[in-house]
Amino acid sequence: MNRGFQLGLLGGLIVACLGSWKDTLFEPFEWKKFIRSPLIGAISGGIVGDQYPDSPGLLIFGTAITLERLTVETWKAIIRKPPGKFVNPERDTGWLAKRLSGQSHPQKVLGVQHMAPPKNRQYVNKAVSAY
């Protein structure tokens, strides 16, 4: 095994462990997802290690993690079909219609009545001219 393969495997294991730790509250543990990151990390680390054998280990390690993340996230975002929980999400688009018709203005939401300049212009002019 070359050094890039080992560093990529280590990076993939770290990503897999942290990812499974992060997602344990939201979804059950799946071995297939857990093994995916070390496998792709080892492959990408091996490729980087073969192409750049004299590179520092930290650079190969970081590049392997980056390539692993790019590969997995590209797969999840572009290539695969979305999971069932995202097929027909309920969307509240009523706010857009209210915003476009003028019923819900951002200033009303924030509790600001209007953004007009103050009526006492002399006070404002004195404050500005003091600087």
Beginning-to-end CA distance, first to last residue:
70 Å
Structural class: mainly alpha
Determine the fraction of residues in helical runs and give it as a percent range: 55-70%
By DSSP, the count of extended strands is 0
Report the portion of residues in β strands.
under 5%
Residue stretches low in confidence (pLDDT < 50, at least 5 long) are none
How does this model look, in words?
- By secondary structure, this protein is an all-alpha fold.
- The chain folds into 2 domains: 3-86, no CATH class; 95-129, no CATH class.
- Helix content is 66%, strand content 0%.
List descriptors:
single chain, 131 residues, mainly alpha, 2 domains, 6 helices, 0% strand, elongated
Question: How do you describe this structure in short?
Answer:
With 131 residues, the protein is mainly alpha-helical. It contains 6 helices and no strands. The N and C termini lie far apart (70 Å).
What secondary-structure arrangement, pairings included, does this model have?
Layout: H1 3-23, H2 31-51, H3 57-79, H4 94-101, H5 106-110, H6 121-129
Helix pairs in contact: 1-2, 1-3, 2-3
